[in-house]
Amino acid sequence: MNYASFYRDTGEQFFRHGHSIFLNYISESPKPHLHVHDFIEISYVASGTGVHILGDKTYEVGKGDLFLINYDVPHEFRSFDSPSAAPLEVYNCVFKPDFIDVNLVDYMDFSDVIHYLSFRSIFTIEADHVDDVKILGGGNSAIEAVYRKMLEEFTRQEEGYVELLRAYLIELLIHIFRALKKSGKAGGAAMTHHAKLIEQSKQYLRANYALGAKLNELASQSFLSPTYFCKLFKDYTGTTISEYVQGLRIEEACQLLQHTDEKIIAIAQKVGYKDIKHFNEVFKKLTGMTPSSYRKMI
């Protein structure tokens, strides 16, 4: 699909107030206005009927339908072009992920936002391609109530409104996570594109932990910048790359201490440590004892 032919919305008109979030309630036109944008959009149909073109799919929509639209996904809502048709009324919440957390500044996919927040113990789910389906249908009073609160705060902009909007956005996302789980559109078997890249990197590190894999090499394999790769790795594993490699090395060292008579210095070198002192320090940090004490205990 040639995105160059679509109108691109950078969000500048929405984010003039200095914060990367915008709310509105709009009656959709029947005229075509297909576009892509540089932000995430969560749209909730409050009333009326019409269609939503999303990527290469077209949905007939009505009250209660909710859509998640990622960066660079062409879409448009249209009311039916008929005097007898009720106009399509839609709540829109558009935001950049860094509005939730500055660590999300490079994120562009709703699934990755879900995964990031899951590591903050909201929900343990992974979701893939959640942006190309209707999440709800038939109405959801809790979600609609959050939209009303958000729109009121955004319109009035009283002191502290930004902090309240951030809290309400988290509340909205939690309701969406619940809907995803109930609808079966999210589950442990699904993996995001980035999750797959990190899993591939973990497999590579397991096979090459003793060689001291370089960050630039890992990032280039995933076609990501080193900084962004580090962020993703920490989000998806809970550890830094260095910590993960240290864990692999010490795990293998424990196996060698248990099942071989090799000298400790030889084991250190075999798992990638040239400095025996550093090996001893890392081993004790991760196991609570020195390599020699570990071997004696075994």
What descriptors fit this protein?
single chain, 298 residues, alpha+beta, Jelly Rolls, Arc Repressor Mutant, subunit A, 3 domains, 4-stranded antiparallel β-sheet, 43% helix, elongated, transcription, RmlC-like_jellyroll, HTH araC/xylS-type domain-containing protein, sequence-specific DNA binding, Homeodomain-like_sf
What can you tell me about this protein's structure?
The radius of gyration is 25 Å and the shape is elongated. Helix 2 packs antiparallel against helix 3. About 7% of the residues have low confidence. The protein has a four-stranded antiparallel β-sheet, covered by helices on one side. It has a three-stranded antiparallel β-sheet with strand order 6-5-8, with no helix packed on it. The longest helix is centred in the middle third of the chain and has 23 residues. The protein folds into three domains: 181 residues, Jelly Rolls (Sandwich), CATH 2.60.120.10; 46 residues; 55 residues, Homeodomain-like (Arc Repressor Mutant, subunit A, Orthogonal Bundle). It has ten helices and nine strands. By secondary structure, the chain is α+β, with helices and mostly antiparallel strands.
